[in-house]
């Protein structure tokens, strides 16, 4: 697809699928449209994609199940799209590993903005010089490489992170031992594409704790500051 971003769209509604595909393609995206999890698996086995747009209400395997297994096995951003507007559906989708969500009906322009934002967060950012390009945060034996968007544990193992999880960890590393409110974290990780759904930050913090903390139920690194927000309680060195 050349320099186009490649999108795998999973949507069983023909009218919506055609609308999304046409709009994204008219805005310079390459779109492959399938209607089920089984078809998605076939496409992922034969080609690489930059992002998945995933409807939750699908025939056969539902979108939440697809989101969980794909995010567990592949490093590819996922935006979930659902006709359900209840908070619980958004929370579950984020817990399953989605990077963002959008509730139907929506303006295609908003979907495009979210796709671009997620892709921007997922790509290594070019720096002004070689030293800046190799910037790494270190804390308590952990290493966070900004250019490679790579997280390495004290034992030397690479820890898989979704784009949203990495951005949240980056925000904490930039502000160690400082309380960050949910609004601040939303702005740091999602910017203008964020909605008012603060609980999404709680879900991301929980996911991050599962990967960083020895005991996520009693976290020592990412602490909850009651009525205020969250704080990375660790000295951070920038190399």
UniProtKB/TrEMBL annotation:
Keyword presence, Transcription regulation: yes
Compartments reported by the entry: Cytoplasm
CDD domains on file: trans_reg_C (cd00383)
Secretion signal, residue range per the UniProt entry: none
A GO MF label: phosphorelay response regulator activity
Entry's Gene Ontology cellular component terms: cytosol; protein-DNA complex
A Gene Ontology biological process term: regulation of DNA-templated transcription
One Pfam family, short name: Response_reg
InterPro entries (UniProt xref): CheY-like_superfamily, OmpR/PhoB-type_DNA-bd, Sig_transdc_resp-reg_C-effctor, Sig_transdc_resp-reg_receiver, WalR-like, WH-like_DNA-bd_sf
Modified residues (4-aspartylphosphate): 55
Residue intervals of the OmpR/PhoB-type domain: 134-234
Response regulatory domain segment(s): 6-119
Residues of the DNA-binding region: 134-234
Keywords per UniProt: Activator, Cytoplasm, DNA-binding, Phosphoprotein, Transcription, Transcription regulation, Two-component regulatory system
Name this protein carries in UniProt: Regulatory protein VirG
Species in which this protein is naturally found: Methylocystis echinoides
Lineage, top ranks: Bacteria, Pseudomonadati, Pseudomonadota, Alphaproteobacteria, Hyphomicrobiales
């Amino acid at each position: 697809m050349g320099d186009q971003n490649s999108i795998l769209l999973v949507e069983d509604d023909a009218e919506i699928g055609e609308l999304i595909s046409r709009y994204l393609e008219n805005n310079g995206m390459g779109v492959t449209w399938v209607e089920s999890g089984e078809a998605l698996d076939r496409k992922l086995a034969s080609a690489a994609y930059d992002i998945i747009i995933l409807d939750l209400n699908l025939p056969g395997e539902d979108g939440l199940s697809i989101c969980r297994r794909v995010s567990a096995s592949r490093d590819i951003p996922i935006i979930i799209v659902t006709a359900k507007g209840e908070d619980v559906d958004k929370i579950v989708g984020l817990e399953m590993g989605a990077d963002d969500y959008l509730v139907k009906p929506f303006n295609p322009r908003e979907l495009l903005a979210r796709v671009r934002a997620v892709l921007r967060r997922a790509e290594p950012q070019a720096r002004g010089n070689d030293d800046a390009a190799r910037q790494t945060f270190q804390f308590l034996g952990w290493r966070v490489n900004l250019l490679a968007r790579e997280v390495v544990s004290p034992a030397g193992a690479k820890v898989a992170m979704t784009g949203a999880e990495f951005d949240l960890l980056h925000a904490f590393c930039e502000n160690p031992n400082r309380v960050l409110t949910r609004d601040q974290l939303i702005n740091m990780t999602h910017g203008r594409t964020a909605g008012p759904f603060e609980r999404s930050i709680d879900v991301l913090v929980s996911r991050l704790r599962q990967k960083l903390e020895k005991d996520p139920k009693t976290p020592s690194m990412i602490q909850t500051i009651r009525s205020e927000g969250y704080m990375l309680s660790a000295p951070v060195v920038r190399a």
